[in-house]
Specification:
four-stranded antiparallel beta sheet; two-stranded antiparallel sheet
Length: about 90
């Protein structure tokens, strides 16, 4: 996915970042299974990684955050997660 074709936004109770995908050190999109055209189609998978700690250091236990992938055309994909009651330095919230 190209930075010219999609934006990724981050929202939490403490901050909102409108386009974290514009900065290549903050968000990454990897093609897991696809045909290489950088377009998500039926049967394809992409992995979205957002380094939240680079712009939101105030997240605490039980906080909710939302990541939205916004293509230039089509529906917005929203992913909402709550942090668990106990936090470790690195966690996978899939």
């Amino acid at each position: 996915m190209s930075t010219k074709t999609a934006t990724i936004s981050y929202t939490s109770p403490h901050t909102h970042q409108d386009n974290v995908y514009d900065n290549s050190t903050t968000a990454f999109v990897y093609e897991v299974k696809g045909d290489g055209d950088a377009l998500l189609e039926y049967g394809e998978k992409f992995k979205v990684v957002v380094k939240v700690s680079q712009f939101d250091t105030n997240l605490a236990a039980n906080d909710k955050f939302t990541i939205e992938v916004k293509p230039p055309v089509g529906a917005v994909l929203s992913v909402e997660r709550y942090l668990p009651p106990a936090l470790d330095t690195i966690m996978d919230l899939t």
